[in-house]
Specification:
Elements lengths: L2 E6 L4 H11 L7 E7 L3 E6 L3 H7 L7 E7 L14 E2 L5 E9 L2 H10 L12 H9 L4 H10 L3 E9 L2 E9 L4 E4 L4 E4 L11 E4 L4 E6 L2 E6 L2 E3 L3 E3 L15 H7 L1 H10 L22 E5 L1 H18 L3 E5 H4 L10 E6 L5 H12 L4 E5 L5 H5 L2 E4 L12 H14 L7 H23 L1 H12 L3 E6 L4 H15 L2 E6 L17 E4 L6 H13 L4 E6 L11 E5 L7 H19 L18
Parallel strand pairs: 16-17, 16-18, 18-19, 19-20, 21-22, 21-23, 23-24, 24-25
Antiparallel strand pairs: 1-4, 1-10, 2-3, 2-4, 5-6, 6-7, 7-8, 8-12, 9-10, 9-11, 11-15, 12-13, 13-14
Helix pairs in contact: 4-5, 7-12, 7-13, 8-12, 8-15, 13-17, 14-17, 15-17
Bound molecules: 5-amino-5-deoxy-1-O-phosphono-D-mannitol.
Length: about 600
């Protein structure tokens, strides 16, 4: 989604803005632009990547500026729709992340008052509103303008003759980076990490006024203090470290991520979050909400919690729950969101909190909106995930779910001990999968030649089949579907044949025999089958075309090793097809619109 940056200091703003924008590329975008204030505001923008903009743009002289990467929502990617957007006089420039719901009404009114619009964007109403209300006090004009705006925004405003940046947010993240005789504003921490690790998180309705050596935060006209935070990860954590793609680096980081994530959950007697399940709490059920890959973690959470805690658990898409779902006063809700900024998830949290429900967030981003508006937060320790495709954050989410459930488990102590030991062995097991990358890559090559692929499994690995399909379609553009293996005969059989390979994930659990039957059915329809099976299993190999072996683990942990296979299959298929692995078309890392 859109990324925004602002710089004010003693250095030339243009190169700094462009380098910050490069760090935001992972969010996904189609256009880029900057505005720099010298004697006047100069804007340079186009529907191009930041590096192209950098080469094409003339030197813009000035030590204050704003920049933007746009992910089109209102109007196609084009020069005129790219940000920054200006008012009629060209003296006010704005970059915006979010969506203005009532922009059409505002635009009509402003047009009738003589304002001239040139783009199709919702954003353009903001500089015109500020122009309308400006009477010598920029903060006040921004505050008044935003009172008319319905929707979500993170904005930075630059005005000729005003040596400051004014920033504001509502339902869209925004941070201020604190420097030494220079300050920054950005939608996301990686943007500014080259320059500072000191960060202030703005809250909804905050207005930040930033000069070279001063930061003021106002809320409803009153000045307030916001705490400064130190970012503990470095810019190196957000770099490729010799890997060809971020995605590959992030896949290979997973043994460490597992260690780091469970390493902070020190004791089995101290739950990582208070699920309030012990004793007679009247708890009836658990609801887990998420989107995309995190939704697949939520589905796995259902299996994990039901197996270990023995209570009914629902996993739902936050985007659907927002229009339909119900909870009871005694249900507990967990939301899972890597970024902590997914609009659908935030909407669900707000609704649940309004209904008086207690919400626990599992998130990877310290200080993210989800971490601030929930009752309790369980942080995953995946480190910055740059590739649009979620990999290590998913595995870290699973670790958090296991560790959330284990202290409340209703299994016998011997099994509990063996699970804890199994969990601690997982980094080594995942490493074994990574060491088998050459075999997985060969299978990926086979998949890369096809247009349609099915992923099938049963039981706790059913969500892994969904995740395998999502990962493949997301980055390789191959049409892929994840199915419960028993469901193929209820429709998709009509699509099977020698041109439609099937990836079958076979676990050593109560689904094993049924999976073998399903594989035989698929083979009878001539589909090539790649099976993911545990070491030591010889039966499956005789039925299928290719086998990918994974190390033996307790069935409840099999999704971890199997998912790593799915990630590598998708990665190598996408690479084979020459796709832009880390930044797939039309997608954004952080989905901040509904
Ligand atoms: O930040 P979140 O976990 O809330 O993001 C949810 C989805 O947008 C995300 O998992 C998406 O599906 C991934 N890019 C898929 O790889």
């Amino acid at each position: 989604m859109c990324g925004i940056v602002g710089y004010i200091g003693e250095k030339q703003a243009q190169p700094i803005l462009l380098s910050c924008l490069c760090r935001l590329e992972y969010r996904g975008y189609d256009s880029s632009g900057i505005a720099v204030l010298g004697s006047d505001i100069e804007v340079y923008k186009d529907a191009v990547r930041v590096r192209v903009l950098e080469k094409a743009s003339p030197p813009l002289i000035g030590a204050i500026g704003i920049g933007h990467t746009r992910w089109a929502t209102h109007g196609e990617p084009s020069l005129v729709n790219a940000h920054p957007h200006c008012d009629c006089t060209g003296k006010i420039a704005v970059v915006h992340n979010g969506i203005i719901n009532n922009f059409q009404k505002l635009r009509q009114k402003l047009t009738s008052e003589g304002h001239n619009f040139i783009s199709e964007t919702d954003t353009e109403v903001i500089p015109h509103l500020i122009e309308k209300y400006y009477e010598g006090d920029l903060e006040k004009a921004v505050e008044t303008a935003l009172r008319e705006v319905e929707g979500s925004y993170a904005i930075i405003v630059l005005m000729a003759g005003e040596p400051k940046l004014v920033a504001a947010r509502k339902d869209s993240p925004l941070i201020i980076g604190v420097g030494d005789r220079e300050n920054f504003i950005a939608s996301d921490v990686p943007a500014i990490l080259d320059y500072t690790s000191r960060v202030i998180y703005l809250e909804d309705d905050d207005i930040g006024v930033v000069t070279t050596d001063n930061i003021k935060v106002r809320r409803h006209g009153v000045e307030i203090k916001r705490k400064e935070h130190k970012i503990l990860w470095s810019v190196e954590d957000a770099q490729k470290a010799g890997y060809e793609h971020f995605m590959l680096k992030e896949i290979h980081e997973q043994p460490k991520v597992i260690r780091d994530t469970i390493g902070v959950y020190v004791s089995m007697t101290e739950p990582v979050a208070d699920l309030a399940l012990q004793g007679d709490t009247g708890l009836e059920d658990m609801l887990i909400l998420a989107c995309g890959t995190s939704y697949h973690a939520a589905l796995l959470g259902k299996y994990i919690m039901e197996e270990l805690i023995k209570i009914p658990v629902r996993a739902e898409l936050a985007s659907e729950f927002n229009y339909w779902g119900r909870t009871s006063a005694r249900s507990r809700t967990i939301v899972i969101t890597q970024s902590g900024e997914t609009a659908d998830v935030l909407k669900a949290i707000k609704r649940l909190r309004e209904e008086g429900r207690r919400v626990i967030a599992i998130t990877n981003v310290v200080g993210s909106t989800a971490s601030r508006i929930t009752d309790q937060v369980v942080y995953t320790r995946a480190g910055p995930e740059i590739s649009v495709a979620a990999t290590k954050s998913f595995i870290a989410q699973l670790m958090a779910l296991y560790w959330l459930a284990l202290p409340y488990s209703k299994i016998d102590i011997r099994r509990l001990d063996s699970l804890i030991m199994g969990l601690r062995q997982l980094p080594g097991k995942v490493q074994q999968v990574l060491d088998n990358e050459a075999v997985i890559s060969e299978c990926a090559k086979q998949l890369s030649r096809h247009q349609d692929v099915f992923f099938i499994s049963r039981g706790i690995n059913f969500p892994v089949a969904l995740e395998g399909a999502l990962k493949l379609k997301e980055i390789s553009y191959i049409h892929a579907e994840g199915y419960g293996a028993g469901e193929l005969k209820h429709g998709p059989f009509s699509l099977l044949g020698s041109d439609t390979p099937v990836v079958a994930i076979v676990a050593q659990d109560n689904t094993y025999e049924a999976m073998l039957t399903n594989i035989r059915e698929v083979k009878a329809r001539r589909s090539p089958v790649i099976a993911v099976v545990e070491e030591g299993d010889e039966a499956v190999g005789e039925l299928v075309d290719s086998v990918i072996l994974v190390p033996q683990v307790d069935a409840i942990f099999s999704p971890v090793v199997n998912t790593v296979v799915m990630q590598l299959l998708a990665y190598h298929a996408a690479k084979q097809r020459g796709c832009p692995v880390d930044f797939p078309r039309n997608l954004a890392k952080s989905v901040t619109v509904e």
